[in-house]
Automatic annotation (TrEMBL):
<dbReference type="Pfam" id="PF26077">
    <property type="entry name" value="BSH_Fcp1"/>
</dbReference>
<keyword id="KW-0539">Nucleus</keyword>
<dbReference type="GO" id="GO:0005634">
    <property type="term" value="C:nucleus"/>
</dbReference>
<dbReference type="InterPro" id="IPR036412">
    <property type="entry name" value="HAD-like_sf"/>
</dbReference>
<feature type="domain" description="FCP1 homology">
    <location>
        <begin position="167"/>
        <end position="253"/>
    </location>
</feature>
<feature type="region of interest" description="Disordered">
    <location>
        <begin position="58"/>
        <end position="80"/>
    </location>
</feature>
<dbReference type="Pfam" id="PF03031">
    <property type="entry name" value="NIF"/>
</dbReference>
<dbReference type="InterPro" id="IPR039189">
    <property type="entry name" value="Fcp1"/>
</dbReference>
<dbReference type="InterPro" id="IPR023214">
    <property type="entry name" value="HAD_sf"/>
</dbReference>
<keyword id="KW-0378">Hydrolase</keyword>
<dbReference type="InterPro" id="IPR058785">
    <property type="entry name" value="BSH_FCP1"/>
</dbReference>
<protein>
    <recommendedName>
        <fullName>protein-serine/threonine phosphatase</fullName>
        <ecNumber>3.1.3.16</ecNumber>
    </recommendedName>
</protein>
<dbReference type="InterPro" id="IPR004274">
    <property type="entry name" value="FCP1_dom"/>
</dbReference>
<dbReference type="GO" id="GO:0008420">
    <property type="term" value="F:RNA polymerase II CTD heptapeptide repeat phosphatase activity"/>
</dbReference>
Length: 253
């Protein structure tokens, strides 16, 4: 299970582009025993990065009169960051019982508008008002590059530009489900069927073999509908699955 951390007020400013914030144990949570740190001072974290693994303390154990027991790994909770930045200080010790509201980590916030795989990108700004709008990069904007994060202000600007582009092109966005709409994928391949048009693949070593075929008239449908709409394909499958299918049929057709 996952436990999003709460943030306290920011500490002293560390220059014009950084501020130290306190990340606390959630107020609504039960006291938890710190099992393992997943970060260290100097680690770069994003929104939803796992900071630590903890084990909730049962109500009858909260008095502290009982010796600590071996935690049940199935009941572990992930304490997550709610902001991006660099870890400055770990404020608790392994084995310590953390009460709700206690400061767990201090983070020097990142206020660059764009973050890509932990690298910070800055635009040169000449307008002081624009500079003041730059905030933490915590919004993923590109399906195929989830590591690319932009600030909420940057995301809003990109959204407006997308809207203007669609108006210029006189198109709407059409969301199309991948499975059972464009393709059919199964783990059970019938040996009596022709292999023509079937894509056989695995998503990794030890993973089951998958067999995929385009549904009837899929290519014609996509060619015609693409003239009227901007197409976006979604799936409840994994990102790797979607990219594998898209890569196969994009290059094929």
């Amino acid at each position: 299970m996952e436990e999003p951390a709460d943030s306290g007020g920011g500490g002293a400013a560390q220059g014009p582009m950084a501020q130290v914030a306190e990340i606390r144990c959630p107020i609504a949570a039960r006291p938890m025993r710190l099992l393992e740190w997943k970060v260290k001072p100097g680690s770069l974290v994003n929104v939803d990065s796992v900071l630590a693994l903890c084990a909730p303390i049962p109500p009858e154990k909260e008095s502290g009169s009982h010796p600590p027991e071996q935690p049940n790994r199935l009941s572990e909770k992930k304490l997550k960051s709610d902001r991006a930045g660099v870890v400055k200080e770990l404020c608790c010790q392994i084995g310590q019982v953390i009460s709700p509201g206690v400061v767990v980590v201090r983070v020097e916030e990142c206020s660059h508008p764009i973050v890509m795989k932990g690298l910070l990108y800055t635009r040169t700004q000449t307008n002081t008002k624009q500079q003041a709008l730059i905030s933490t990069a915590n919004v993923s904007m590109v399906h195929s590059v989830p590591e690319l994060m932009v600030s909420s202000e940057q995301a809003e600007q990109l959204g407006r530009e997308d809207q203007q582009r669609l108006h210029r092109n006189k198109k709407l966005v059409l969301m199309v489900d991948l499975d059972q709409t464009l393709i059919h994928t199964t783990e059970h391949h019938c040996q009596l069927m022709s292999n023509k048009g079937i894509f056989h693949f695995q998503l990794g070593r030890g993973e089951p073999m998958l067999h995929t075929r385009l549904r009837p008239h899929c290519k014609d449908f996509l060619e015609k509908i693409a003239k009227l709409y901007e197409l976006h394909v979604f799936t409840f499958g994994s990102r790797l699955y979607a990219h594998t299918i898209a890569g196969k049929y994009t290059h094929q057709h």
